[in-house]
């Protein structure tokens, strides 16, 4: 697949259970890029919003589905 860039759909869940996204990112996107995106989309009405990307922690929950035979 020449010329096609792999991408990932990522959804960010905030501590109150609300979400940012899902949003598509290149598979090679850095963690800093993800954090900058979250920060720019953070709902302005939410209390305790992070001020910089260093204030954000990303915790992954990657589940793989097992194929049944």
Automatic annotation (TrEMBL):
Coiled coil: none
Matching InterPro entries: Ubiquitin-like_domsf, UBL3-like, UBL3-like_ubiquitin_dom
Parts of the chain that traverse the membrane: none
Residue ranges annotated for the UBL3-like ubiquitin domain, each copy included: 6-60
Pfam families in the record: Rad60-SLD_2 (PF13881)
Designated name of the protein: UBL3-like ubiquitin domain-containing protein
Species lineage: Eukaryota, Viridiplantae, Streptophyta, Embryophyta, Tracheophyta
């Amino acid at each position: 697949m020449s010329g096609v860039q792999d991408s990932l759909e990522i959804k960010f869940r905030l501590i109150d259970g609300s979400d940012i996204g899902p949003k598509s990112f290149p598979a090679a996107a850095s963690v800093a890029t993800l954090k900058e995106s979250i920060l720019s989309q953070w709902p302005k009405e939410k209390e305790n919003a992070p001020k910089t990307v260093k204030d954000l922690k990303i915790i992954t929950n990657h589940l793989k589905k097992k194929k049944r035979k």
